Structure formats: C-alpha cells, structure tokens
Amino acid sequence: MDSEQLAKMFDEIKQKNANIHSILIVRHGYIVAEAYFHPFQAEIPHEMFSVTKSVISALVGIAIQEGFIDGADHRVVDFFSDRTIANNDARKQRMTLEHLLTMTSGLDWHEDPPSDQPSFPQMAGQEDWIQFVLDRPMAAEPGTTFNYNSAGPHVLSAILQKTTGMSTLVFAYKFLFMPLGMSKVTWPADPKGIYTGGWGLQMTSRDMAKLGYLYLRGGVWDGQTILPATWVKATATKYVEAPYDQDYGYLWWIQRIGSYAARGHGGQFIYVIPDQDMVVVFTGGLSDADMGLPQQLVESYILPAAKASATLPANPEGAARLPASIQAVVQPQPKPVPPSPEMATLSRSVARCGTNEVGRFEILDASKHLNRERLL
Prior knowledge:
The chain is globular. The chain is α+β, with helices and mostly antiparallel strands and 376 residues long. It has a domain at 50-204: Beta-lactamase (3-Layer(aba) Sandwich). The strands form three sheets. The protein has a nine-stranded antiparallel β-sheet, sandwiched between helices. Helix content is 32%, strand content 14%.
C-alpha cells in the first residue's frame, strides 16, 4: 500500500478536526495502519451502537449452523407460542427471521426521523420490550419495504436465547468471541435480561477488525469454520434497496464500491472489501452530518493506496511521512498550564499529578509492506 496516500488521509482528518477515535486497516491479513486518537486507546472497548446488529446477524448464522435454529425462513411467531400476541394477522404470521435480518418485517415502526411518535423510546419505557415489539400492528407485507428497526434485531436476540438455552452473551462468547480471541466484549441487557440486539455492544477496534476478517475469509478463522460460507454470501447479497445510496443484506449495509459494512451511530464502521482483500475499521463520535466521512476517506485515500497485491518499490519519504502524519493528528495539542491556587498550608498536603495519556499509534511501512504483525 502507498504510505503517501495514507499520510494524506491523516492530514485531511487533522485539517477537518474530525471526531474520529480510531482507524485500523488490514490487508492480506496484516495490520497496515493502526491509530488511536486521544484519549482513546487500543485496549479500551468502544461503544458500537448499531454495529451490534451485524454481530447479531453472525450469531443467527452460527445458531443455524449449530442446529439450534432450522433456517432463516422460520416464522417469528412460532418462537413465541407461549405469548399472546396482539394484531396477529395473516401478514404477521408470514413474518420470518429473514425479514428481521433485512429490515423488511412490515411492522409499524417509526425510528428514522422525522416522527412525532418514535417507537424506540416507547419500547424503552416498557418492562417487556419483546412483547411491545411483537404486539405492533403491521404496516406492510413482510419482505416488501425497507424500514429501519432496531427492535427487530432485539427480537432475534430473544430468539437466540430461547433456542440455545443460553443468554446471547454466553452464546456469543462460546461460538464467536472466544474462537476469535475477543475477551473484552461487554453488552447491556433489557429489563427482562435479554441482551440488546440492536445496539449497546462494546468491543475494541481490533475485535471489530477480527469480525470483518472472519467475513473476508468466508467465515473461516485460523482454519476453523466459525460462520457458514453461505451465510457470509447471503450477508453480502442485496436483499432490498436501502436509503443513502446503499443496499441491505443480513443486517449489513452493502456499499456501491464493492464492499459491505457494519455501521453504527457516531461513525463506527467495519468495511469488508473483498476485491482488495481488505478490512477497514473506524470508531468515532461523528455528527449525523459527518457520517459520510469514513466512506469518503475509504474512497479517496484507502482504496487508492492499495496500488498492487505485490510489494511496492521502496518509498522512504512516504514511509517517513505516514507516522509523522499520524502523530500530528492523534497527539493532543499542548495547552498552557493554569497557575496553581494559593494554599494556606503545605505541612500535611500531598500533591498527586496524574499521567496524561496521549494518542498512541502503531504503523508498519506500508510502502515496503513490512508485515510484522498478523491480525490472527
């Protein structure tokens, strides 16, 4: 990869003062660039928001592979025969797991603004979130209309719990997190103890990269099949047209640049780019208006930096510029120290000065492709 191109990307981030928290680029299984912007650090888990949905998708695929669920075409209401469900008409009877996975459930749900009666806070005010979702009336035939719905993946989390006999978190650790070496993942639960399927997961940037790399390798990790290849293919296949000039698969967004992505509020992204054998991770605190910035950086700098599959000619200047560009943006600007307040007595006082962690980064010479650290 071209170090000069990547350096230009970090220069633009600095110029825009963009609220990006980390960037991690993996190509051919090696970490090419990794940067953490003050005060974020590699070992500290980050809020994933809706990237959680993509993890739920993977867990449903694993549950099918392990025989806990018979397939994505199973009707949703069949998993809740112990409940009395309101508005249980013929359309709701036809709603399947695949409809929840593709945001085409047909449920009457209002999440994307504008809405004078947003469904999400109404659900959050209930003791039983799953009952609230199942009771929603139908607004469309399942499978016909994309309607963003964070509660659908939460229903999938409940189904995982019912079919596996484990909490979603325990199931995830057993079949996904631990095999991939992910040990710092945390996850909140609803009032009934069901782990939130649509949001709330926390993991490190490297954990995000591992999930992306699992998909890039067709569900295989270190020689072990974690996720069925058919599920990976279904995830990356257009099921329905979605907003923002994208399509939608199984709780992953399908980009128009030959990639697919897990996407979360604030700028959490896992890009899987098969044509370049690449995974790109962003975390951040971006505003809604700036959510397109990671996509722009991928298209304008990261993809052009992937010049060839073989080693590029040595570029000492570019190789030197890249770490300097990263350091310039990840390290906080020095600020003057305010004068100390006057103290009445020092006889029994102890002054403690805390450490000020600056941005940390690790970088390989991308121009020479010095692959010293594998992702596995």
